[in-house]
Amino acid sequence: MIKTIAILGGTGPAGMGLALRWARAGETIILGSREAQRAQEAAEKIKARAGSAARISGTENSAACGAADVLVLTVPFEGQAGLLKQLKPVIRSGSVLIDATVALAASVGGRASRTLGIWQGSAAQQAAELVPKGVSVAAAFHNLSAEMLNGDDPLDCDVVVCSDDPNASEVARNLAARIPGVRAIDGGRLENARMLEQITALLIGLNIRHKGHGGIRITGLPPGAYR
Question: Which of 24, 74, 115, 186 lies 20 to 30 Å from 199, alpha-carbon distance?
């Protein structure tokens, strides 16, 4: 059973979209932001769409982080390291951090359809170096369209999850499967996250070129590979 989910940097389009889908699915959500008031206002907007029974609240990132054992990071790459260093003292041992960060070149003035070279190999691997010992990291949710997440229709997309920890992978895949239209697939070790991030850059380029909101589907695997 998934416990309370803190979405850090949750007032951006991706965080809001994930929060909306999970609130509709009955999960308990805390939206985190640099400003508590902004997070509270965002939570109220989601509650108005998800229904009065939705269990969602908003607060400052540190408070959200300290109140949950499942953390979902949805910040731009340029804010990832700084936020994780700030939150390190309040991240609970045994927590699962699900990182959706993509190191897009746009973060340093380049093209959004390219990724930056990262010494660790991927943004998720960088996150794994920054969190306290005893915290497991999974990479997931990079390739979901934020615009589609913030809509009302089922998505037509697979979520590939990469992690070195089986429990973290399980948590992330269970969360992915809570989103209508999404299938979750075990993508292997965390080092494979670099490929997920590169696929994101490819999708951005395709969506710009074709004016769409494309995702990915992985076909031909045995039925048991999909959740």
Answer: 24
